[in-house]
Write a structure and sequence with these properties.
By secondary structure, the chain is an alpha+beta fold. Among the domains are: 1-188, tricorn interacting facor f3 domain (Immunoglobulin-like, Sandwich), CATH 2.60.40.1730; 304-436, Neutral Protease, domain 2, CATH 1.10.390.10; 442-530, Sandwich (Immunoglobulin-like); 532-660, Zincin-like fold. Helices cover 41% and strands 21% of the residues. Strands 5-8-3-2-11-14-13 form a 7-stranded mixed β-sheet, with no helix packed on it. Strands 16-17-18-20-19 form a 5-stranded mixed β-sheet, with helices on one face. Strands 9-10-15-12 form a 4-stranded antiparallel β-sheet, with no helix packed on it. Strand 17 (203-210), helix 1 (219-236) and strand 18 form a beta-alpha-beta unit. The longest helix is centred in the middle third of the chain and has 34 residues, at 373-406. It is globular, with a radius of gyration of 28 Å. It starts with a strand and ends with a helix. The structure holds (3S)-3,7-diaminoheptanoic acid (B3K) and zinc ion (ZN). (3S)-3,7-diaminoheptanoic acid is lined by residues 124-125, 255, 257-259, 292-293, 296, 315, 368, 371.
């Protein structure tokens, strides 16, 4: 299949009015009978009927209005079945097909597959074509009526239940939808049940379906769902629209979860949680993803995407909404900092390398390769900027208009921007570049101070990205404030709009020279370059009124210390260590904030920072600098860290809420530093006594880093050997936290274990993702990290191409390293490229990376 281009979009020449599916489930021979009522859009200009259908579909019969068409007009080529216009009626007709498929052989987990005896589906983006012949594109929408036949006790599909009997069940979804939102589930499952009354008084039955035995770990997901439903009514005025909302958990799932209409399917790790098995981060993520998938009901399902180039229309907006939800449920400041950390670690990195693409790409070979940090997280940032530019009220009016105007539509980014223009009167022509242009703008700021006037000179520049050498200026909202020398704010948050390559802003009648607090709340996804000495950074860390900017000042201090340390400068961290000391001693600062400030930037983040400054990162030197800085912090502040560690001992029953988890985060941050100087004694004790998984994993990671985790790991395996989700953590921590010299060997050993069930995506990611995240180990000078990863990608590719292709992005930064590493990485990538019958997924990824 050739490259697809946005510019080639053409509407589908047929309208669909109903799809009826009758599916008889069997592991190796599932029969799918499909009846599609359709009509040509233009009766005079007859078009061929083209249906998508994967190679795995064994076609039994095909009829049009009950009669088989002349075989001369029917042809199957690649993944397309074409029925010539000459064989089609000019008015409404029913196309019926019968196919047989083999769910058991489906190891790619796309379409209909079996996960531990449970039949389930994943159709986004193009999985439905592996279930039946169909126009598998998001702008073809219709209602679905589904009959499922099986002896399994629970049979689910989208919409409302119509009727059921022994061995069958019928479902009807009254809301027209594209086939990527179709789902079915059949299995031995039990429901944790709840209910929700919508604000207009309709009762909705809520079910979280799990495997028998897992019921006691599903309550948190159910409570999160109820909170999400209420929040979407209160904040966006969006009500749920069916009698039932089902969530099903499965163990084998390529991503986190899927928003199928009325029947969300979840990776079990994003539903199942108990204090003994899940960490605080797991709980927070479960709450966020349950909300995300639920919010898709309006942003994604009721209003879907015209084509897959518009993916960020639903994903960026839904991420933005789930971020707002988490801010409301927990701490807005903490959430913002966490989101920026993720954006910088994943999206900035993507934008710097060969895989850079705009939030709305204009070409792809395999759409599954574009479910990226750019489409999701940067897509959400772009909406945050829009909201800042038009104000909260303007945003609310625009969203109301979006829902009113486009309900039932398959929409585009143009439609989205138009509602903002119509609702607020603002011209968004220049703003649109955020959607069409790749790359992270670099904003450079210089200051000029004279006679009570401060001038800010700003310059924006976006480095070239693949296929986009020149980048015109964008509109960049820069939220800023001014802090006087005594620490008082002399200018509260103001938004400067940068629209030109260079622009200056003046602030007059200032008594004394203030310190500029810039990019408050991370108001735009840009890199800010400014000359700021360590004492001004420390000043902002102490006095800024904006929590994000305050944290970021500390981050800058840490990054400059690490950059200097990595280039061999001794004692570079003095200013940072001293500033952290003042922060730690200040009981007026909340625990969550202090915990965030105590976490050193990751090695990957340091490498991204160096690369942006045109310095070749040395993974071993970065690692050494980071270890040294952690040790300096611990030595300088041992008494206060020890006091925090002792005082924040967990008491009473576990609660996953923001306050208790912030205390645990601060306590564990202290533990990690202390373990640098206490030989791991505290970690050892904590591992043995902690009553929750958060502290156990924190302690275990510290022990692994010290190379003294053997006993703890054995204990954990004995206790949780049969709990897949905990064992994923067990695999992961040993590689992620391992000292770089041993990590690859450990990964090799773990991969040889019989319980390294690598065809399970979670288990594969637990090991391979952990190695990719261990920066000095993945980039080991001898190439062993690259080789080990490439070997496994080659093994995974024929089994599950989506997983192999996604994991291949571990290599996306290879060009930033030294010539020796580059040669080894290239060799590894070329080995993958040479694989016989490499999937389209991996082939596109690898060729973009070695282009
Ligand atoms: N929309 C799905 C992701 C589908 C990925 C297909 N490769 C989950 C989500 O973003 O909510
Ligand atoms: Zn989503």
């Amino acid at each position: 299949r050739p490259v697809q281009y946005l510019a080639d979009y053409r509407p589908y020449p047929f309208t669909l009015s109903e799809t009826r599916l009758d599916i008889t489930l069997a592991p190796t021979g599932t029969r799918v009978r499909a009846e599609i009522d359709m009509q040509p859009k233009d009766a005079r200009n007859a078009a061929d009927l083209m249906l998508d259908g994967g190679a795995g579909l064994r076609l039994g019969s095909l009829t049009i209005d009950g009669a088989a068409p002349d075989p001369a007009f029917v042809r199957r080529e690649g993944e397309v079945l074409t029925i010539g216009a000459a064989a089609l009626p000019r008015t409404a007709f029913t196309l019926a097909t019968e196919v047989e498929i083999d769910p058991e052989a489906n190891t790619a987990f796309e379409g209909l597959y079996l996960s531990n005896g449970i039949f389930c589906t994943q159709c986004e983006a193009e999985g439905f074509r592996h279930i039946t012949f169909y126009p598998d594109r998001p702008d073809v929408m219709t209602t679905f009526r589904v009959t499922l036949r099986s002896d399994l006790p629970v049979l689910l599909s989208n919409g409302n239940p119509v009727a059921s009997g022994a061995g069958w069940a019928e479902w009807h979804d009254p809301w027209p939808k594209p086939c990527y939102l179709f789902a079915l589930v059949a299995g031995e499952l039990v429901a944790v049940r709840g209910s929700f009354t919508t604000r207009s008084g309709r009762e909705v039955a809520l079910n979280v379906w799990v495997r028998p035995g897992d019921e006691d770990r599903a309550d948190f997901a159910l409570v999160s769902l109820i909170k999400s439903m209420r929040w979407d009514e209160e904040v966006y005025g969006r009500e749920y629209d069916l009698e039932v909302f089902n969530i099903v958990t499965v163990d084998d799932f390529n991503m986190g979860a899927m928003e199928n209409k009325g029947l969300n399917i979840f990776n079990s790790k994003l539903v199942l949680a108990s204090p003994e098995t899940a960490t605080d981060a797991d709980y927070e993520r479960i709450e966020a993803v349950i909300a995300h998938e639920y919010f898709h009901n309006w942003t994604g399902n009721r209003i879907t995407c015209r084509d897959w180039f518009q993916l960020c229309l639903k994903e960026g907006l839904t991420v933005f909404r789930d971020q707002q939800f988490t801010s409301d449920m927990r701490s807005a400041a903490v959430k913002r900092i966490e989101d920026v950390q993720v954006l910088r670690a994943r999206q900035f990195r993507e934008d710097q390398g060969p895989l850079a693409h705009p939030p709305r790409p204009d070409r792809f070979e395999e759409i599954n390769n574009f479910y990226t940090a750019t489409v999701y997280e940067k897509g959400a940032e772009v909406i945050g900027m829009l909201k800042r530019l038009v104000g909260d009220e303007g945003y609310a009016r625009a969203l109301d208009l979006y829902f009113a105007r486009h309900d039932g539509d398959a929409a585009t980014i143009e439609d989205w921007l138009k509602v903002f223009e119509d609702a607020t009167g603002r011209d968004l022509g220049q703003f649109k570049r955020w959607y069409t242009d790749a790359g992270t703008p670099v904003v450079t700021m210089t200051e000029e101070w004279q006679d009570g006037t401060l001038a800010l000179h700003l310059r924006q520049e976006t480095p070239p990205t693949p296929g986009q050498p020149d980048k015109p200026a964008r509109v960049i909202p820069l939220a800023m404030g001014l802090i006087g020398p005594n620490g008082d704010e002399v200018l509260p948050t103001t938004v400067l709009e940068l629209t030109e390559p260079r622009q200056s802003f003046r602030f007059e009648a200032l008594g004394a020279r203030p310190v500029v607090s810039m990019l408050r709340g991370f108001s735009a996804p840009v890199m800010l370059r400014r000359q700021l000495d360590d004492s001004a950074r420390a000043f902002l860390l102490a006095h800024d009124t904006d929590a994000f900017a305050r944290w970021d000042a500390g981050r800058d201090l840490a990054l400059s210390a690490l950059a200097a340390g990595a280039s061999g400068e001794a004692g570079a961290g003095g200013a940072y260590v001293a500033a952290i000391g003042r922060l730690l001693a200040d009981e007026g600062i909340d625990a969550a904030f202090r915990a965030l400030c105590l976490q050193l930037p990751s090695e990957e983040e340091v490498a991204t920072h160096l690369h942006a400054d045109r310095t070749v990162p040395d993974p071993a030197a970065i690692h050494a600098a980071r270890e040294a800085l952690a040790r300096d912090l611990a030595e300088a502040h041992e008494p206060v860290l020890a006091e925090i560690y002792t005082r924040l001992r967990s008491e009473g029953p576990y609660s996953p809420g923001a306050t208790a988890s912030a205390d645990r985060a601060l306590r564990l941050a202290a533990l990690h530093l202390l373990s640098r100087i206490d030989g791991g004694e505290r970690a050892e004790i904590l591992f043995g006594t902690a009553g929750n998984m958060t502290e156990r994993m924190g302690a275990l990671a510290a022990l692994v880093r010290l190379g003294r985790a053997e006993r703890a790991l054995a204990a954990m395996r004995d206790e949780f050997g049969s709990n897949r989700l905990v064992m994923d953590k067990w695999f992961s921590v040993q590689v992620m936290a391992a000292p770089p010299e041993t990590a690859v060997a450990i990964a090799r050993e773990l991969a040889a274990r019989p319980d390294f069930d690598w065809k399970n995506p979670n288990r594969f990611r637990a090991l391979m993702g952990a190695l990719a995240a261990n920066h000095p180990a993945f980039h080991a000078a001898d190439g062993s990290g690259y080789d080990f990863t490439a070997d496994w990608l080659m093994r995974m590719d024929p089994v599950n191409p989506q997983i192999a292709a996604r994991m291949s992005s571990a290599f996306e930064t290879w060009v930033r390293y030294d010539a020796d590493r580059r040669a080894r990485a290239r060799q590894a990538l070329e080995r993958i490229a040479a694989l016989e019958s490499l999937s389209r997924n991996s082939s596109e990824m690898v060729s973009r990376m070695i282009a």
